[in-house]
Amino acid sequence: MRPLLGILGGMGPLATADFLTKLVQETPANHDQEHIPYLAYCVPQIPDRPAAILHNGESPLPYMLKGITTLRQGGATAIAIACNTAHHWFDDLERLGELPIIHIADAACAELARLNITTGAVGLLSTDGTVAAGFFQQRLSARGLKCVISTPEAQTTLVKPAIDAVKAGQLAHAHTLAIAAVQQLASAGAQAIILACTETPLAIEFADHSLHAHCIDATRALARACVAWHQKHS
Amino acid sequence: MRPLLGILGGMGPLATADFLTKLVQETPANHDQEHIPYLAYCVPQIPDRPAAILHNGESPLPYMLKGITTLRQGGATAIAIACNTAHHWFDDLERLGELPIIHIADAACAELARLNITTGAVGLLSTDGTVAAGFFQQRLSARGLKCVISTPEAQTTLVKPAIDAVKAGQLAHAHTLAIAAVQQLASAGAQAIILACTETPLAIEFADHSLHAHCIDATRALARACVAWHQKHS
Question: B165: nearest CA in chain A?
Answer without folding.
Answer: A30
